[in-house]
Write a structure and sequence with these properties.
The complex is a heterotrimer. By secondary structure, chain A is mostly helical. In chain A, 73% of the residues lie in helices and 1% in strands. Chain A has one domain. In chain A, strands 1-2 form a two-stranded antiparallel ribbon. In chain A, helix 4 packs across helix 6, helix 7 packs parallel to helix 22 and helix 9 packs across helix 20. The N and C termini of chain A lie far apart (54 Å). By secondary structure, chain C is mainly α. Chain C folds into two domains: 61 residues; 81 residues, no CATH class. Helix content of chain C is 73%, strand content 2%. In chain C, strands 1-2 form a two-stranded antiparallel sheet. The longest helix of chain C is centred in the middle third of the chain and has 42 residues. The chains are: A mainly alpha, B alpha/beta, C mainly alpha. The interface between A and C is large, with 65 and 68 residues.
Chain lengths: 499, 334, 164
């Protein structure tokens, strides 16, 4: 009950006109940041952090967290319209969102994405409100072995079945792992695979690969087929929002499952990107129309978006209660807390009630405001597809170049982006799947790091991955997911045999 | 706060500028890039962004100060970038210990002498932390417990590999003749939480990284790796303050280590340009925001400029080289 | 990757073989790099090159199988027609020039020329429209990135001269 009283007090704080204004400004900035590739949520919040020094901490965190929500919403826009993920966690949204846009349904895809994001966030906030202390303690049980198990599970639930030839899938995935390994090896502090090239010190950033493989590759494919985007006939009015809303409740199971996956991945904390891939992979396996995923299924948009937003929101919980950021953006917000003189950690919920509950209340309001803002803009976004290709294509290419540059402020990365673009075109034409490649770049070095940390701790014994109930059950779940098709087949055979 | 004695630099500049008399003091004409050779959210990044905020809020510069993270290759990317911007006075860099450790451990072609030293802003302390549930309450009990455990079963968590945390770990090993298993993590906050969750047995976190867990009663500080106790006497937890933490030396753990938080600028900078930035940072240091920040992280606030700063850095470089050579951390190429 | 015997463009199998070879070469580079970093299982668990080495080996092995499959492929369907490839190259080549010139002339000048070229030659727009978009976009970019978000983008001699 005390929580509810606190929450109402929090609403009173968040509803002050000054804070409401900051909330709107934050959402708008966030959407812009999310749309511009390269200028991700973490960069955006970091850039705007110094501006908030002259504000009271509660107002500052409201504005910054709203930038974060805005970026979460905005990342989906370019993924759906141009196949260019504005943020890492919206890569999985491109798989079905972009085909939908090409079939003349960009409005439906955007509405589904935004609404699912909101549902995911709402679920996570309710969870934070009700069970915060309980859940925060859970995150403490995650050492390196448990983290590796989570990455393993995320990976297994995404790969496994795919329509492409298996050895092409393996080749693509391994390319991703190899690219993820370039740069500094975090366990030995030694450079590897850089061949003395200083530009390779950073390794291959995920965003640059994605902008190239998906964005540029798609433009090249479009050029080959003649100069046109196929989304031009999109309906552009607000009715599409209501029509899509009518369809959405039918997918409540997918939504609920994605919410749970997202919250879990946010708290552990593995982050929004693995959550979105995992949720997509599981939905593909369990949905009735799973076989048609990748060809513009609305469920394929709902699953990753819900999970990403739920994870992004719940990632703030370990940050506030433990001081461990669940995502890069949360890491920057954490820096902000320290600069404002607030110490995240067990005492924050006790000593800074106004701040914590003001923030939680602003999560409810900020996400609602965000949803309204982006939904009213759906027709505008959809109308972008009507701009002729020969105008929009160079603009996209320039934006991609800016995005690739601003990841590390390096023109070398812009050239890499083009190389990835040509590679993406070639691989796609030759029927190599790109998604496992991308997932391997995201999870590769993190998984390797956790794996080697675990082995350091266990003095080289692999038994550490089955050393307690938590880690063993996650590993077993991962194995089940990996061999799901075999298991499902065996099960159906068994059933026919019995019958 | 220590009073800084060396303000003679201004006079030195005046003498040097004797030939070109009526030269106006230099000022930036374009936005100044403030390079952070570490990721967003880390200690150096926080400090840089605090400085940026202070400069903006108090209008200390006419041109904007723009923070840019270049974390690749343990910060090597950032240092090489500044090194390559010879003669560009619109680029400064904040350093941490990776100024020494990165070139030594990875063999990238960089040395701090490639840059122009500006000022030491502060020194970051290191504290030995253990989980509060553990029975040992002082260094002696801790050391006894380590010695009793089989070699290598005790885990020390730290940030990065072959960097400051691991150097301190190796020094502790040497001081008490034992062996830890060192486990590197990405960030200091993560390390502190791994200690709370009992996934490692001790850490050498900076005060700011672990203070929240100390206040929450989850962690316990044993000693500080400095020559004298920290200066902040405000109580933090259990009625104890930073000042009450004894030095490791006084507890029989022979090791001192402080991490540089200093400013360098691109090569071939003129005296005027260096002087401009020194004045700027003096103004930053005088603001209440900076003092709050120093207090929240229990920083050692030594401020050095000019030859004293260079001398300090040079001595530190020699020390790092010796420590890292002992530990076998030097890159194979060296 | 040249066309043999087909009149319209390179065959799919030829490109397929080329791609498999390209990936195999990449795998070899990874193996060489891993060997340099040390691939054995050291005192502290696997060394830096341990995982990349096996990743490299898998890449080479998978490519060998893909190459074998491509060699057995006797389907003569085309990868793309020459005309289509020309279309693709008409984007790749200017983009390569755009990207390559960026370190020297800066992002803004390069973008103006690139957008202008694209709209005029591929789109055939009136000069007025071309100028409006080609100048408008970099100016908006400048305002958003450099003024608003304080993100510096690459600049060249022209910006230096303008004092931006």
């Amino acid at each position: 009950m005390e929580e509810l009283a606190n929450l109402f007090h929090g609403f009173a704080v968040a509803l002050q006109p000054y804070n409401m204004m900051l909330m709107l400004v934050g959402i708008m900035l966030g959407v812009i940041i999310g749309v511009l590739p390269g200028l991700g949520g973490a960069n955006g919040v970091a850039i705007l952090l110094p501006l908030t020094f002259s504000m009271p901490p509660t107002s500052a965190i409201i504005m910054l967290s709203c930038i974060y929500w805005g970026a979460l919403f905005g990342g989906a826009i370019t993924s759906i319209l141009f196949n260019i993920p504005g943020e890492p966690w919206s890569v999985a949204t491109t798989f079905d969102g972009y085909p939908m846009a090409q079939q003349g349904k960009p409005g439906e895809a955007l509405t589904a994405a935004f609404t699912s994001s909101f549902v995911g966030a709402l679920f996570a906030v309710v969870m934070i409100t009700l069970v915060a202390p309980l859940v925060a303690g859970f995150a403490l049980r995650f050492g390196p072995a448990e983290k590796f198990a989570v990455y393993f599970l995320a990976f297994c639930s995404f790969v496994g079945l795919s329509k492409e030839p298996p050895f092409k899938t393996i080749a693509a995935m391994m390319i991703g792992f190899a690219l993820a390994a370039v740069g500094l090896d975090s366990i030995t502090g030694q450079l590897r695979l850089t061949f003395g090239v200083t530009e390779l010190l950073n390794g291959f950033d995920f965003l640059i690969a994605v902008i190239g493989l998906f964005g540029i590759g798609e433009i090249l494919l479009t050029m080959e087929e003649g100069l046109s985007f196929r989304g031009g006939q999109a309906r552009i009015n607000l009715r599409v929002v209501l029509q899509t809303w009518k369809e959405l409740p039918a997918y409540w199971i997918t939504s609920l499952r994605s919410c749970l996956i997202g919250c879990w991945m946010g708290i552990t904390p593995a982050g929004a990107t693995p959550a979105s891939f995992m949720s997509y992979g599981i939905a593909k396996r369990l949905a009735k129309r799973g076989g048609n995923f990748g060809n513009g299924e609305i469920e394929g948009v709902i699953a990753p978006e819900t999970a990403a937003h739920a994870a992004g929101t719940s990632a703030l919980l370990p940050m506030l209660s433990l001081g461990v950021p669940g995502s890069p953006t949360a890491a920057v917000l954490l820096g902000g807390l320290l600069i404002w003189g607030l110490q995240p950690g067990p005492m924050l919920f006790v000593e800074q009630k106004e701040f914590v509950w003001g923030l939680i209340a602003s999560m409810y309001l900020g996400n609602l405001a965000g949803l309204l803002v982006v939904l009213t803009c759906v027709p505008i976004f959809a109308a972008i597809l009507r701009v002729p290709f020969s105008i929009i294509a160079p603009l996209i290419l320039v934006l991609c170049a800016i995005g690739a540059y601003s990841v590390h402020n390096s023109t070398f990365d812009v050239m890499l982006m083009l190389v990835f673009g040509v590679l993406g075109y070639l691989l796609k034409k030759c029927n190599y799947p790109l998604a496992p490649l991308v997932l391997a770049i995201v999870l590769g070095d993190k998984a390797e790091e956790a794996f080697r940390q675990s082995l350091l701790g266990s003095q080289g014994s692999l038994g550490v991955f089955f050393s307690n109930g938590l880690v063993s059950s996650i590993m077993v779940l991962g194995l089940v997911a990996l061999f799901w098709s075999a298991i499902a087949e065996g099960y159906s055979r068994l059933r026919t045999a019995v019958a | 706060m220590k009073p800084f004695i060396h303000v003679a630099l201004a006079t030195a500049t005046a003498l040097c500028a004797g030939g070109i008399e009526a030269r106006a003091a230099w000022e930036p004409v374009r936005p100044v890039e403030f390079i952070v050779p570490a990721g967003t959210g880390g200690g150096a990044d926080q400090m840089a962004r605090t400085i940026q905020g202070i400069v903006t809020k108090h209008n200390l510069m006419k041109q904007p100060l723009v923070v840019i993270n270049k974390a690749g290759g343990a910060g090597g990317e950032g240092f090489l970038d500044v090194k390559a911007s010879s003669g560009n006075p619109h680029k400064i860099v904040i350093t941490l210990s990776n100024l020494f450790t990165t070139p030594l451990a990875t063999g990238i072609p960089f040395n701090w002498k490639d840059l122009t030293p500006v000022a030491m802003l502060a020194l970051d302390e290191f504290v030995l932390w253990v989980n509060a549930e553990k029975p040992y309450t002082n260094v002696k009990e801790y050391v006894d417990a380590i010695k009793k455990a089989p070699t290598g079963t005790l885990k020390m968590g730290g940030t990065g590999s072959k960097q400051e945390d691991q150097i301190i770990t190796v020094a502790i090993e040497k001081a008490i003749a034992t062996k830890f298993t060192y486990i590197p993590y990405k960030g200091g906050g993560e390390v502190a939480v791994q200690l709370v969750g009992n996934h490692v047995d001790s850490t050498v976190n900076n005060p700011i990284e672990a203070v929240a867990q100390w206040r929450g009663g989850k962690l316990r500080p044993l000693c500080v790796f400095d020559a004298q106790p920290m200066a902040y006497s405000e109580p933090i937890a259990e009625g104890k303050s930073w000042k009450d933490i004894p030095t490791c030396k006084s507890q029989g753990l022979e090791m001192e280590y402080l991490m540089l938080r200093g400013i360098f600028m691109s090569p071939r900078a003129s005296k005027d340009q260096v002087e401009y930035y020194i004045e700027l940072f003096k103004k930053v240091r005088a603001t209440p925001e900076w003092q709050d920040f120093m207090k929240s992280g229990a920083f050692n606030t030594t401020f050095l400029t000019g030859p004293d700063y260079a001398k300090w850095v040079e001595a530190e470089e020699k020390r790092h080289e010796a420590l890292m050579k002992d530990a076998g951390f030097l890159a194979p190429a060296n | 990757m040249t066309a043999h015997g087909s009149d319209g463009g390179p065959t799919h199998k030829a490109v397929e073989r080329g791609t498999a070879l390209l990936i195999a070469v990449f795998g070899l580079i990874v193996i060489v790099g891993s060997l340099k970093a040390g691939i054995n299982w050291g005192a502290e668990g696997p060394r830096a090159g341990f995982f990349p080495f096996y990743v490299g080996v898998s890449i080479v092995a998978a490519s060998a199988i893909n190459l074998w499959n491509a060699l057995r492929d006797h389907d003569d369907r085309l990868f793309a027609e020459w005309g289509q490839l020309r279309q693709v190259m008409s984007v790749v080549v200017p983009t390569a020039i755009y990207v390559g010139s960026m370190p020297f002339v800066g992002l803004y000048v390069a973008s103006i020329v690139f957008i202008g070229w694209f709209m005029r030659w591929l789109g055939g727009y009136r000069w007025l429209t071309v100028f409006a978009v080609a100048l408008g976009m970099p100016i908006v970019t400048y305002l958003v990135f450099e003024r608003w978000f304080l993100v510096p983008l690459p600049k060249g001699p022209v910006e230096e001269w303008l004092g931006l």
